[in-house]
Amino acid sequence: MLFKPILNYPINFKRFFSLLVLLFLSPLVDAQNEAAIWSAGNGYQINFQSGDAVISKTDENNAGYATICDKEGNLVLYSDGRTIWNAQNEVLVNGEDLTSEKHRVIRRPVFVPYPKKEGSYFLIYQYSPKDDYNIPNKKMVYAEINSIGSGGRGEVVSKDILIHSNYHYEPTIAGFCNNSYFWIVIDRNNPVIDYGERRDIINLYKIDENGLNTKANVDSYINIGNSHGYKFSPNGDKICFTYQENVQHDIRYVVADFNFLTGTLYNIRTPSITINYAREFSSNSRYLYYFSGTKLMQLDAVYTSGSRMRNTTIIDIPHHDDAEYQGLGLQLAPDGKIYFTYYGDNNEIKLGRINQPNNPGLACDVELDLYTFESSIDFPKFVTSFFRDKNPENLDEQFPNAGPDLEICSKASVKIGTEGHPEALYHWQPETFIDDPLSAEAVFKAPLLLNSSESYTKTLRVTDGNCWLNFDETTITVLTQPKKLPIDGSWSVCPFVEEVDYWIDEEEKYNLYWLVDGGEVVPGKAKDSIKINWWETNTNASVRVYGKNNFGCVSDTSIFAVRINVELITETPKGPDKLCMAEGKNVIYQIKNTNGSVYDWSVENGQILSGQGTNRISVEWKKDGLNNIVVKETSTTIDTICYGESEPLFVEVINDSLTIQLTNVSYLSGNEIELSFESEKLDFNKHRLRLEIENETGSLHDELPTLGRYHRMNREIYSEILRLKVINLCDEVFYSNPQQTIALKGNQLFSEDIIQLNWNRNQFWETNRLSHEIWHSEQENGSWQKVAQLDDRTDYDFMVQENSLLHLFRVKEINEDKNLESWSNTIKIEIDDNIEIPDVFTPNGDGFNDVWAIRNINYHTFKSVEIFNRFGEKVYECKNEFVPWDGKIKGKIYQGTYFYQITFDNDKRYGQITLLQ
Description:
With 917 residues, the chain is mostly beta strands. The protein is 1% helix and 47% strand. The strands form 19 sheets. Strands 8, 9, 10, 11 and 12 form a five-stranded antiparallel β-sheet that branches. It is flat and about 135 Å long. Residues 1-31 form the signal peptide.
C-alpha cells in the first residue's frame, strides 16, 4: 500500500547530510505537521516528519493519495477518493465505495479537520460520470470520518453528501483561528442569457463546529465568464484565481483580499501578469509565486495598487523546446519552503525549491536540480492554512485607530493613525498618497488640487492574518491651492524710473501678496496690479507674488525677473506676422508699455495710421511680400537717458487672389461627372477646392471633388448647375463660372415599339452652335454605336428592333463654337417581352383599338397566326411576321366572336376574340 517504502532517496548525499545538520541546529518548532507526508503519485512520497524533505518510492503506480497527519506529523488517514485507509493500511469501516463504479474520481481529494471534534475529519472529493466531461455533471461531495471510531480502526459516518455541482475547477480551502472554522471557495457555472454563454459565480462554503454548511455564500461582484486556478494564501486573507469575462475577452489574473469573518472578497486587483498554471503563496501570505513562460516570478501581493505590486523575475529556468510550460507544480511545504517541478534538458521532471519565500526578490534563494523523478508526479492538495507562519503565542485582538478626520491644504503632509502593536499586520487602503501603507502610523501626502476640494477616505485594517480582523477609517479633505499666478509687465527698465506697472492677467478671488527686489511698491488700493519705483542699476531685480485663498492655503510664488540698465532691451513687436493683403488694414502691433518711455515705430512698406509715440500702433500694409516693423524706445529719468531698439518683426503679406474657369462638365460611366477647369494660380497644397451644386429646385449644397471628379452617388438623375469654389490661404472665396449637366431620360411607348428620349441643353451654351449625337448599346459592357446625329433639338424617338430587349442610351452635346463635348448620364431601358393578346377590339375608325395587335409578339419566333369564325372557317392568316388584323373579311367587318391559333416553334396558343363595332 501507500506507506510501505521500498526505497529511500535523500535528495542527494551531500545535501541530505547538510539538511540534517540544519534540522538539528534549527528545529521547526512551528511546523505545520498535518501535511507532513505527501503522496505525489506513481509511488513517490515526500516526507517532512524529520523536518526536511525525504523522497521515497514504492512499487505502486497511481495518481497519488490525499493524506492527513496529526499535529505531531504521524499519518492518520489517506484516500484516493474511492476508499479511505488508516495509518495501518486498513480500510475504514464503511470506507469503501465513496462513489459508484459508474463515476470517475476527478482531481485529488482533500482532508479537512472537523473543528472542535477531535479525531473527526471531512474528506472533500469530486467525481463525474465516466466518459462524461460536461461541466454541469461534475459534483463536489464530502464524507464525514471518525478516525478513532470502531475500536480505533476508524469509520466513515456519512459519505457522498452533495456540496456543489456544475463548476470548472477544484476548490481551495483555508482554515482560520487555529482551524476553528474553514472556508471552501469554488466556482459555479451558471447560464446567462445576456452573454449567450455560461458565467461563473464564486461560491463559498463554511465548515465550523456545526459541520459543513452546504448553503453557499455567493460573491458575484466580478463579471466572470469562466474561471479556474483558485488558491488561498496560507493565512486565508488573500485569494488568487484566473478568469475571463467571456470567450472574446483576454484572460485576467486576480488577487483579492478575503474577509474570513464574513466570507467575502474585497480589494480586488488585476495585476498585469501572465500565469502558466501553477501558483503558490509564501508562508507569510505576502508573496505570490508563479510560472510565466520559462520564468519563475514573484509578485508582492500585499499591496492593492498596481504601482506598488512589484513583479520580479526570480529565475529563468533552463527550458526544453518540446515543453508547453517549463514550470509544472508549486507547493508550499511544512518546512516553510516552496517546492516546484520543471522539465529538465532531456524532458525529465526535476525538483526545485525556494528556500526563503518570505524574502523579497532574489533574496528568496532558489535551488534547481534537487532531484530527478523517473515518472511524472503531482503535488497533493492540502488546506492552505496548514503551512502558514504561526506566532509562538496567539496575539490579543487589536483595534486600529485611524485618527480624526482632517482638513489640509494641497501638497501638505499630515500624520494619520497611531502607533500600533509590533506583531499585528496593518494596512491602509486605498494606498494612494500614503508613504507607508503597511504601518499603523503613516504620512498622507496631499495631491495638488486647483479647481475644487476633494475628500479621501482611508481605511486602516489590522489583523493577525488568520483569527481576527478589524477596521477603522478617517477622511482627509484636501483643500484647493491657489494656482500659480503669472506676472506681466516690463522686464527691462531704466534706473530710477517710477510707477512702472505690473499685473496678473487672471481674475482670481485671492488675497495677493506682492514682493519687490531692487525697488519699492507705490502705495495703492489695487489688488491685481501694482506700480513700482525702481532703483539703481540691477541685473537681479524682480517682482514676486503669491495668493492665499479663503481656506488659508497659499499658492506657489511667481517670480518675474527685471533688468535695470541704461541700455534697454526693447521687446520685439507683437502682432500678426502672416496675413493676406485683404486683411492688411487697421492691423494692431504693440509691446508692453513702460511708464515714461517714448516709442518710435518704423514700418517697411506700410503706413502707421495711429499710435506713433506709444506702445501700440495701427498699420495699413501697402505691398505684399516680406516686410518688417521695428520700434525704438527712449526713457528719461532725473539724470539718465535710456535707449533701446527692438529686433524686427518680419511680416509676410500675401496676395493670394486667383481666378478659376470651369470649362466643361461631362458624365463618365455610372454617376461620375468629370470637371474640366483652368486656373493659373490654383495650388492644391495651399488652396481648398469645393464644388457648389444647385439642384432643379434651386437649393445649394457643397461637395468635395476628388481628382477633378464628382460622384453623385445613387441619387435620382436630374440636371444640376455646378460651379467650383476655391478658398485661399486668407479664407477668401473665389467662384468659377457655372456649367450645367446634361440629364437624359427615356420611356417606352407600349402601343408602338418606340423608346422616347429627351434631355436638356447646357443653358450656359445656348448662345453657341450646338448639335447632339444619340449613342446606343444593347449590352451593359458592350460597344456603343451612334444611331442619330441631330441639331440642337432635345428629343428623339428610337425604334425598337426585333429581339432587342435591353437598350442603353447616352447623348453627347457638342459645342461647335468652343470645340467642347459634354456627355449625358447613361440610361438603361429593359423591354418587357411578355406576350399580351387582346380578347376584344373595335375596328370602328375612331383611332382607338382599331386593330387586333399582339404586343411583344415580335420578340418571339413564331410561324403563323390563324383566325377562324364560329363555323371553323379561316378568315385571317399571317406567317413568319405578324401583321395586326383590321377585322375585315373580304373587305367587310362582321361583329361576332372569333377564335385564334398562334403557332410558335415549340408552342401553340389558343383563344377567342370579340369583335365589336
